[in-house]
Structures are given as C-alpha cells and as structure tokens.
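Re: [ENG-882] Designed sequences occasionally contain unexpected residues at chain ends

Forwarding the minimal case from QA. Structure tokens:
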C-alpha cells in the first residue's frame, strides 16, 4: 500500500506494532537505564524500531518518576501495593518485578498506558479540588490512623474558640492544623500535641459572616512527616439578626 494512502492513525498503529525481532524485557530495562545493550544487532534494532523505543521510553519514565509531595507518595505506594498483591511467579521460583510482567504481556503497552493514567490521576488527586477543597488520597496508612474533625462543623453563631478532633489511632507525635478559605489558602495554622487547639483572636476576626471556611488536621510523626490527614471539615459563621 502506498504510504500516502495511510491515515495518521494507520501510521501510528503500524509503527508501534511488535515484531519477532523486538527486544526482550531485560534488554528494554537496559535501554531504559540508558546503558548500551552490548549487542550490535539489538542496538541497531532499537534505533530503528518505534515499538521498542516507546516501550523503553515508557519504562524509563515510570522507573524515574519522582512524586513531589506526601499525597503523591501515598498514592503511588497504594498502586504498587495493589499491583504486587497478586505476584506473577511460581512457588520456588525467583520473584519477578511486577512491572516486568506488565511489559512482557502482549497488551503490555496498553496496560502500561493505563498505569500511566492511574499515576496521572494520583497526581491530580494530590492537588486541590475543583471546588477549592483539598482532596485526600486514601492509603493503608491513612485508613489505619484516621482523624475526624469534631468541632466546629456546619453553621455556627459566632467564631469558634477552639478546633477539636478525634485523635489518630496510630502513634502520632503531634498534629498540624490549618484553617483554609474556599481557594485552599490557609488563613491560619498551628501545631498541637493533643486533639484540640485554641484559635487566636486574630484568626477569629477573619471568620466573616457567611464566609465558608474549611479546617484540616495532619497527624505527624516525630520527624514531622505526615502519617494521616483528615477529610476537610466545613463551617461558617452565621450571625443571628445580622441583616445580611
């Protein structure tokens, strides 16, 4: 068929089809690490094969990806835990890295692309929600050391003097508490050793009539790393007979 009669989609599909001469998983791993293959024929094949190039690039992108905050680390750990919960190896044999079995299957590229989508979703979930509220990515650690805001919640008649929550079940060394506006900007934050903290007058003065606010608690370990994070609690001050 004349190349000119191919659609863009035809060209992409054909270029990425696997052939009998395509590289093994071990060779793709070597290529992904940027190391010469040590085999001239394999090296020449890699230079000319879009399928192997895309597989090696995808593998390198995944292996070198570095989450940039605690929420993304938690999300990636849960993905890895889920994928490794059903290891693909026979009793008595040497375990194989789960991502190697992913790339080894005929649908490996599609599966890897799906994994990339899941990782992208994890990054998205680590960012503030579209409504301005933080979105919490749950993982095994978060579920086992859950925190829940107790007060304030909902409409209240005056600015609260304290924030109180149910303490984490795990070994938290302390807590970080933040009061956030609808744009996810902290208007006040503090540290606490127990499950409540007093709110200073300067912060209470920012709690205007019918202004929606959120507050959130992080349970911290002795080094200040986040062990768990609460779902944001919402409240607003509605002053009776304010005329507004």
């Amino acid at each position: 068929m004349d190349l000119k009669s191919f659609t863009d989609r035809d060209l992409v599909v054909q270029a990425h089809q696997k052939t009998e001469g395509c590289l093994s998983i071990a060779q793709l791993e070597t290529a992904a690490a940027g190391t010469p293959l040590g085999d001239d024929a394999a090296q020449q094949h890699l230079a000319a094969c879009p399928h192997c190039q895309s597989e090696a690039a995808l593998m390198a992108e995944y292996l070198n990806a570095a989450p940039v905050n605690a929420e993304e680390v938690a999300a990636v750990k849960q993905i890895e835990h889920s994928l490794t919960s059903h290891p693909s190896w026979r009793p008595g044999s040497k375990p194989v890295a789960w991502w190697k079995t992913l790339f080894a299957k005929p649908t490996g590229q599609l599966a890897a692309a799906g994994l990339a989508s899941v990782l992208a979703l994890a990054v998205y979930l680590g960012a503030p929600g579209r409504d301005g509220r933080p979105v919490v990515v749950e993982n095994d650690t978060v579920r086992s050391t859950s925190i829940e805001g107790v007060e304030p919640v909902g409409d209240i008649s005056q600015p609260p003097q304290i924030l109180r929550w149910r303490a984490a079940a795990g070994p938290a060394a302390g807590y970080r508490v933040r009061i956030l506006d609808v744009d996810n900007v902290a208007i006040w934050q503090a540290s606490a050793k127990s499950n409540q903290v007093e709110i200073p007058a300067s912060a209470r003065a920012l709690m205007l009539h019918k202004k929606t606010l959120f507050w959130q608690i992080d349970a911290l370990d002795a080094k200040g790393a986040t062990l768990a994070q609460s779902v944001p609690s919402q409240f607003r001050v509605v002053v009776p007979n304010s005329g507004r």
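QA comment: On inspection the terminal residues look reasonable. The beta strands are 148-151, 154-156, 162-166, 174-180, 186-192, 196-198, 213-220, 226-229, 233-237. Proposing we downgrade this to a documentation issue.
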